Amino acid sequence: MTDSGRERRRFTSTVLGAAAAPEPTPIHQRVVRGVVVDATRYMFCLATPRGEERFLYENSTTFWRGGEILATELRPGDDVVVRCSQDGRLIAERVWARVARATGVIVEREGDTLTLDPGHGRPRTTVVLPYRTSGRITVRHPRLEPGYLFDAVGIWEDGAVWAARPATTQPPHPLDASPRRPPVREYSTTVEGIVSWYDPARGRSSHLDPRAQAPGAAYPALDRSGHEGRCDRRTSCLPLPLLSTGATLSLRNDCTRDTAVVPVIDCAASDSWFCDLCPACGTRAAGRIASLTMTSFVALGGLLEVGCFNATMTVANQEG
C-alpha cells in the first residue's frame, strides 16, 4: 500500500472509528513467491525475500506451467508461486510456474499474436496463441478481432503471454457496443460477485520488482478524487460503492470459506468491462468485484489457472 493510502486509512479510522478501516490481513505464511534455484525428485529450492527456502512435495502435489508438469521440469529462474499444505510451510500443495494473465481489449491481431490494452495506463500486453491451445481459446473467444474483450491464463515466455486456457467467455459484442448500464443510485455494503487476479509485477520476480509480493486488490469503482492516476472505468454491472486507494475490503471466498481483509492498491478498470459468471463452485451474481494480486488470490484459496472464484465483499460503513 502507498504512503498516501496508509495515511487515508489512518485518517478514516481516527474520524469514524477502527471498524470503518479494518487492518489488512497479512499474507498467510502458506503462500510463497520466489525464483527456482534447483529442483530434484524430492524437493525444490526457491530464492525468496527470506533467503533460500526448500520445499518437499508429495504424490498429490500439483505443478502447473501452462498445464500440469513434473516437479523435475521446473527450471532455474522460473518465477513460482507456492501454496503450502495446512501443516505448515515445508510441504508444497500447489505450485504455479511463470503463470501469467492477459486481460483487456484487443487492439491488434497479426496471425496468432494479439496486442491487448489492459486499461488504466498499464503497458500493452502481447499474447501468443499456441496451436495446441488455440482451439480451447477460440471456443470461448470466437472473435479475436480489434475491439473485442479477451481474458486468458497462460505463462510468460520471452516477454509475451502464451495463452493456455480462457479465463471467461468473451462477450458477443465489441467493448464500445456494450449495453450502457444505468448509474447505480443506492449501494450496499455487502456485494456478491466474482474475484479475479492480476500480477502487478507482470512476471518479474520480487528481487527485480517488489510488487511481486504485494498483497491487496485492484478495484473497478475507484473515486476519481481518491486515486493517483487515470482509472478509465465504466459503470459496473454490480452495485459497487465508490472507494479510494487505501480503503479496505473484507472478502470471503464462497467456494472455500476463506476470509481476509485486503487494501485497495490500484485501479481495475477492466473488471468493469466484464459482466460474467465464474464456474468455480456454481454460478452466483454476474460481475467482477475486484482483482486480487497473485499472492492474495492464492492466500484466499484461489486457483490461478482457473482465474476466479465467487466471493462476498463487505465494505465498512464510512458515513459519519
List the keywords.
single chain; about 325 residues; mainly beta; 3 helices; 17 strands
Question: Can you characterise this structure?
Answer:
It is a single chain. The longest helix is centred in the first third of the chain and has 14 residues. A hairpin with a 2-residue loop joins strand 10 and strand 11. The protein has a 6-stranded mixed β-barrel with strand order 12-16-13-15-14-17. It has a 5-stranded mixed beta barrel with strand order 1-2-3-6-5. A 5-stranded mixed barrel has the order 7-8-9-11-10. Helix content is 9%, strand content 38%. By secondary structure, it is mainly β. The mean pLDDT is 87. It has 3 helices and 17 strands.
In short:
This protein is mainly beta and 320 residues long. The chain has three helices and 17 strands.
* β-sheet strand percentage: 35-45%
Q: What is the gyration radius calculated from CA atoms?
A: 19 Å
Q: Count the DSSP helices.
A: 3
- Helix fraction bin: under 10%
Average pLDDT rating: 87
- Give the ordered list of helices and strands: HEEEEEEEEEHEEEEEEEHE
Q: Termini distance? A: 24 Å
**Shape by Cα distribution:** globular
Low-confidence stretches: none
Major β-sheet profile? 6 strands, mixed, barrel
User: What is the β-strand count?
Assistant: 17
SSE-based structural type: mainly beta
Quaternary structure of the protein? single chain
State the strand order across the main sheet: 12-16-13-15-14-17
